[in-house]
Design brief:
- With 226 residues, this protein is mostly beta strands.
- It folds into 2 domains: 128 residues, Immunoglobulin-like (Sandwich); 83 residues, Immunoglobulins (Immunoglobulin-like, Sandwich), CATH 2.60.40.10.
- The protein is built from 1 helix and 18 strands.
- Strands 6-3-2-1-18-17-12-13 form an 8-stranded antiparallel sheet, covered by helices on one side. Strands 4, 5, 7, 8 and 9 form a 5-stranded antiparallel sheet that branches.
- A hairpin with a 6-residue loop joins β17 and β18.
- The longest helix has 10 residues.
- It starts with 8 loop residues before the first helix and ends with a strand.
- The relative contact order is 0.18.
- The N terminus is likely disordered.
Length: 226
């Protein structure tokens, strides 16, 4: 089992931003996967946010909901076969997993730990939560010809059958569904709400795999003609 490289919050956020660029064709595209999911540890509901970059790295942020300074959370990642591939022990906050592969379906689990306050007490380790699925997907974006059209190809991932594609003028709301695309297939986007895609205007897209708690949110913008 490979060990985890732990990064502090500032370094993790900076690295995440740098690794999010997909490609460098005339259409400017960037992708950030982020969606919150909740898992249950003991009798408490703990918010956990999954963030993945197109390079295949993942950050899982766990919010410590306990007022007890001795409480922390272990995290581990399993592959689609149920085998543990990475473990992070007692590292609350942002955990950085660097050995996960692109275009894979994974699961994460969390358990609560508590350090004893007195010599006669034993340290506490809770049970692992149920498995929560997430996908590290790399979508291929390309410009169709010289026009204002973009092709988005969906990867083939074991356990993922299809992807729902949405678009919006806003990066966090007002999503309009364009199509459900099968794994391995593509969608060509040339219009939004009945209008042709314009130059130098941002169009946000969201891709939601049929399995997994995380969705990809990105932006498409055609550069102005020189």
């Amino acid at each position: 089992m490979k060990s985890i490289r732990k990064q502090n919050c500032i370094l993790a956020i900076v690295m995440f931003a740098l690794m999010s660029i997909l490609t460098s064709f005339p259409v400017q595209a960037q992708t950030i996967n982020q969606k919150q999911a909740k898992v249950t540890v003991q009798y408490a509901s703990i918010p956990a946010k999954v963030e993945t970059s197109s390079s295949g790295d993942i950050f899982i942020t766990v919010k410590n909901i306990s007022d007890d300074y001795r409480v922390d959370y272990d995290m581990r990642v399993l592959n689609n076969k149920g085998n543990v591939v990475e473990v992070s022990e007692q590292n609350g906050g942002i955990t950085y997993f660097s050995y996960l592969k692109k275009n894979r379906l994974y699961y994460y689990q969390i358990r609560e730990t508590r350090t004893s306050a007195y010599p006669w007490e034993e340290d506490f380790t809770g049970e692992w939560t149920k498995k929560v699925p997430f996908v590290i997907a790399q979508y291929q974006l390309s410009q169709v010809g010289t026009g204002r059209k973009v092709r988005i190809k969906m990867p083939k991932i074991s356990g993922v059958k299809s992807y729902k594609v949405y678009m919006s003028y806003k990066k966090d709301r007002a999503w309009k569904k364009l199509k459900t695309v099968k794994a391995g297939k593509s969608i060509v986007v040339s219009k939004f709400k009945g209008k042709a895609l314009a130059r130098n205007k941002k169009y946000y897209y969201k891709i939601v795999p049929s399995k997994g708690v995380n969705a990809t949110i990105g932006v498409i913008r055609f550069s102005k003609k020189k």
